[in-house]
Amino acid sequence: MRKLSGLFALLTALTFVGAIVVSAEERDPLQTRVPKDQLSDAKQTKNPVAKTKENILKGKALFEGKGTCFNCHGKEGKGDGPAGQILNPSPRNFTNCKFHKKRKDGELFWVIKNGSPGTGMVSLIPAAITEEEAWTIINYERAFCEESEEGKAIK
Length: 155
Prior knowledge:
The chain is mainly α. Helices cover about 50% and strands about 0% of the residues. The protein has helices at about 1-20, 35-45, 55-65, 70-75, 95-100, 105-115, 130-145, 150.
């Protein structure tokens, strides 16, 4: 009976911890994830891929395919993908337009290339995608908050 009681206590504790991890929202969605000593360079790095309807659609295909971004960020970019459910903090919500206004493309690129310390975001370049593909994905991520024709292309 003691073993059964101990097992029940362990399962209860694991369920509690699991509930906390699943519900762990990003602490500060506007905070940069680029180290301070590299932030200036990242902010100055410009996206060499033109933001066109065609490139945004290519970015969508990469986001949902080869880049595997949707696994954590979700198909709609809300940070609610199946793998993201267990991450603490939760993945970025790309539908947060305040986030997009605050972050430069070079900062997003830095995170894709280097990963994000203290989060589940790992480096994707060159393991999964090329630098050009990363820039194309950034154009798509930006389109989650745009009312332009290019932004409407993703909906």
